[in-house]
Specification:
Blueprint lengths: L6 E2 L16 E5 L3 H13 L3 E5 L2 H11 L3 E5 L7 H9 L8 E6 L4 H9 L4 E4 L4 H48 L11 E8 L6 E9 L3 E9 L4 H13 L2 H7 L5 H11 L9 E9 L4 E7 L4 E4 L6 E2 L18 E4 L5 E5 L1 H4 L10 H11 L5 H16 L8 E8 L11
Parallel strand pairs: 2-3, 2-4, 4-5, 5-6
Antiparallel strand pairs: 1-3, 7-16, 8-9, 9-10, 10-11, 11-14, 12-13, 12-15, 15-16
Length: about 425
Amino acid sequence: MEEPSLEVSGSQGDRVAEGVPRAATILLVDDDPIFRLIMVARLEKLGYRVFQAEDGGQGLEMIRRLQPDLTILDWIMPKMDGPDICEWVRRDPLLKSSQIFLMSGHDRPEDIEEGLNRGADGFLSKDASPLEITARVQAGIRSSALVRQLAYARDAILAREQTLEAELQSAASFIESLLPSPGVPVPGIHLSWHYRPSLTLGGDLFGVTRWGRDYLGLFMLDASGHGVSAALRAASMVAFLHPDNLIRVSESYDPGAILSAANRRFPLSSEGEYFTLWVGALHLPTWRLRYASAGYAGVVLCRPHANSVWLEQADLALGFDPDGTFTTGEQEIRLGDRLYLSSDGVYEALSAEQVMWGKERLQRVIERHATRPVDYAIDQCFQASRAWQQAEHFRDDAALVGLERVDEQQDGITLL
């Protein structure tokens, strides 16, 4: 179709400078030049910018190009009638918010029903009085303004969501870059883990790293809240737990002393933000594990042919008692023992009835697969937790770390 010339009536048709508010725009599509002349004069008197088209084909082209606030269509026209134009407009995603009035010399109920079914927003009788025409046009312009405001708000929300999603993905990638590599962190230990950040990104992180010559350092932390702020606070705690910093905090890598120092370093914020943290120090020459907990309850020691033991203390989360000290516990790690560090996002999964999956169910799954490879047991835990909540994504970050003490002679064999 040949590109139509845009016939603009009156001085108000002059191009408006960028950013300057303009009057509402109306497109009048009618093949009767006398009627167009009368209607244009009436609409311009109301302060609207009015464009004209003399047939349906030209009208559809101008609707696409101008995207007017309101289009008034004659029902019967050459090339394309009003209801056909309505259907074309409603199929165009860019024009879905357009307001369209069909105009006819008849007000039969069956015509009104057909017009509405084919996409019109309202009707205007050619025999209507000037007062009725004014009222209906003004109502159409108000509806158009509301629909477009909603569309702008929707687009703004989508843009913010996309920006937030990109920020969360970037933060999640950064957080995952801080996690340890699975495999053999030290001779005699096999490490496996699974980590699923929530859609809102939380502050759950863990670490398994060498502390000096004789220790394997372990930690599992949870920064309260969600989003980028919680992730960044968690990253700051990881920096605090770096071996180069801890040697200044506790020469013996005593977990209780480490938590006491962290408690002073990370007080409860003015917004009520805090950390829960579990720290373990495995002395490699003796295979003695010393540990301390600041409100963290998700660490279990699983032994072959014996009851599992939860390694937790009754101490508060960090920051609630500025002068608080933390108790250090101790356990021997024997051949075949497995240590599981779980974030609360795994065992606090809620069913549709808002019942928590719980630590006991997590423990039963771990014990059921005690003779299978660690990564298999971890995968079964995740599957059971997801099945309980009947959802793929977790409300909170979900992390489960498994460490198994094996014969050092087996280090060359991949058990994960």
